[in-house]
Design a protein that fits this description.
Shape: globular
Structural class: mainly alpha
Helix content: over 70%
Order of helices and strands: HHHHHHHHHHHH
Number of strands: 0
Largest sheet: none
Strand content: under 5%
Number of helices: 12
Radius of gyration: 20 Å
Length: 246
């Protein structure tokens, strides 16, 4: 066999099982941050007065780390239920943007698949699957890649949260596991800052969050999220109108 003359072997077919496995592998680096993040959530939920069963139920139903942390902080501060729901809704608005970005690629799927993938769609899953989902290679099975990403994160997150609930206050504060969550989000956000709109949205949200930190009931998070989204939209329109390179 002459490697210079013979044609290259055909690419490995993208079967559902292979795509699912590739999705699992793609999120492995992000699991290193998800595990301590989940442990901290479970411990904080118990300390906030949330029952263990309810804390686990919140984790499985909401399945959004930042929103779950917000719920525990607002419950601990005796925040009214309506404000808790509003805060969680605003924080999770970004998932609607993720869904919109992938909607065209998933439009051919039956409803049961759309519901499942919508439930499993997180920051990490979106970041890991974005390039694969936008590729035109094997479009008939690439949703299995997204399913693998989401399932890998979901299963690991649930186990970590359950462990945190069971361990409760036995996690030493000196471990500083909460900082792992910050590192995880930095690792997710930085690679996605590829144009002026996304960078401007990030900077605006950061500045507003610091400036509005003193607001009661953690309202600085809502203010920063809204300001960041508004800045991103305005900058995107400005770039299109002026013809500047993104």
């Amino acid at each position: 066999m002459n490697p210079l003359l013979d044609p290259p072997p055909p690419p490995t077919p993208a079967t559902p099982s292979r795509e699912f496995a590739r999705g699992l592998v793609a999120v492995i680096p992000m699991l290193l941050g998800a595990v301590p993040f989940g442990l901290i959530y479970g411990a904080l939920a118990v300390k906030a007065g949330i029952s263990p069963l309810l804390a686990i139920a919140i984790s499985s139903i909401v399945f959004a780390g930042s929103a779950q942390f917000m719920i525990t902080k607002l419950v601990a501060a005796a925040t009214p239920g309506l404000l808790i729901v509003l805060s969680v809704g605003v924080i999770n608005l970004r998932h609607a943007l993720y869904s919109a970005a992938l909607a065209e690629k998933l439009a051919h799927l039956p409803l049961r698949w759309k519901v499942l993938l919508a439930y499993l769609l997180t920051d990490e899953a979106y970041a890991a699957a974005l390039r694969r989902m936008q590729s035109e290679v094997h479009p008939e099975s690439r949703h299995w890649f997204l399913f693998g990403c989401g399932f890998g994160l979901w299963s690991t997150w649930q186990l970590a949260c359950i462990a945190g609930v069971l361990l409760g206050g036995h996690i030493p504060a000196a471990w500083s596991l909460d900082f792992a969550g910050t590192l995880t989000f930095i690792a997710i956000v930085v690679p996605l800052l590829k144009d002026r709109a996304s960078t401007g949205a990030m900077l605006t949200a950061g500045v507003v969050s610091v400036a509005a930190f003193a607001l009661p009931h953690k309202l600085f998070i809502i203010a920063a999220a809204l300001a960041g989204m508004a800045a991103g939209v305005l900058l995107e329109r400005l770039v299109r109108r002026t013809g500047l390179n993104a």
